[in-house]
Specification:
This protein is 35% helix and 18% strand. With 540 residues, the protein is α/β, with parallel strands linked by helices. The strands form five sheets. The protein has a six-stranded mixed β-sheet with strand order 8-13-12-11-9-10, sandwiched between helices. Helix 8 (134-144) runs antiparallel to helix 10 (172-198).
Amino acid sequence: MATNRRMRTIKTALLSVYDKTGVVDFAKGLHELGVQLLSTGGTAATLVDAGLPVRQISEHTASPEMLDGRVKTLHPKVFGGILARRDDDSQMAELGVHKVLPIDLVAVNLYPFAATVARPQHTVQEALEQIDIGGVTLLRAAAKNSPGVVVVVDPANYDEVLDAVCSNDLPLSRRLVWAARAIAHTASYEASICNYLSGLPENAALDATPELQDVPDTVAMTFDRVQGLRYGENPHQKAAFFADEATVPRSLGAAEQLQGKELSFNNILDLDAAWRLVRALSVAGAVVMKHNNPCGAACGESLVDAYVKARATDPVSAFGSVLGFNEPVDVDTAGEIVTTFVEAIAAPGFTSDALEILREKENLRLLNVPTDGELAASYAAAGFHRHDIRWVDGGLLVQDRDPGAGIPQEEWVCVTDRQPSDEEEAGLRFAWSVIPYVKSNAILLARGQQLIGIGAGQMSRVDSCRIATWKAKDFGHQVAGAVAASDAFFPFPDGPESLAEAGVTAIVQPGGSMRDEEVIEVADRLGIAMVLTKTRHFLH
């Protein structure tokens, strides 16, 4: 922070923050400019401990804090001081009549509602206590009167604001930018509260952690621009990436780009798809993603083993792909990656030796996605992250997320005379963990913990079967003895017949077709083991 700043315009500042990051230095800078400091509760105590002269709001208003701090700033001497129009002589005179001091700068941030409801063991009462009243009102008042009042909500902006105050570089355009940030903050805050409260079940108890409704009664969303993108789905389309203020850890919204060109719209779609899929793999896993569909996935004894197997699924499509890993990328894996052209990588870290190798490819985008080590963790903790949202003309489609591999597999039932072998069952379970992330109609072929054939996005399921087997054979994979997974039921026996003809010996599928019995009879006739999951995994 710069010192010896000359005061020009700002004479009185109100500071009341939950997040006290940088507030002492900010207050010191204001004090050096001759600004009188007003403050409340914990913020005032922090500033006093730092040796700063602070006037308590309770002293300023001659009204004590009430109800354990629930009522502190809600007073005409506070809001009159903020809301009076500086260009209105009658309003300024009215302040004088009532002995109200103009407040020229408001620095406020809010109680941590989103963080509170993200805790697995929070209670409804704890959530309600984090609904800020005075802070939101202060921010809105300051934003409303931004022609005459500076408002700051983000500690990251303290230096910027202090420099502007020092130089008296406070044009309306700049004040409106700060006001917009404040309102965006309150909007995001209110959205979190709205989504939480509207998602509470009818039997919610104040002293218990609630099970939120799968789909709330109201949807409220706010997002902040993270970065502009090179282009949208096509070069003639402009695009940007937005994240919400309470970005969930383990998501791309919280990722750090370590190197590479600016991301494109399609890059982010593929990186998100790869990251979601790879989190479902329980051991060292790798995913090769192309056009929002996996063209390879595998688990291995090591990360490089997994990657080599995943790339081998479809090495032609792997060219120009996006990769996802569920472990930090090591030097051996990096050495394999640079042998072919890759667009981008999402991983929970990169070793220093791996980075040295990968940085030889200057345009290769590397995203370090934060993780707590539990890659298969649920999104169900808080807010709207546990939902999928799709725009349609005139509205939104909202659904709770498909938990994918998170659905227990204990209810699987073998419906054929032949039971799958242990090896076949392992392959079935691996393929089933991947199939929720493949566009329907989806058919996967697997041997062990490796995909060897993928048929995706076809209008006919039997066509997906034919494509999966054709691609597997075309790349030299042994289909005889492989297993298959189908994301939905077989409407006719032609799908299993096609798979059996290629050499598939076991199939996992949801079941539920009116022709299930016919399909099972065909499987028995062909000697195929068939397992029903009773759970469909369409990715439409």
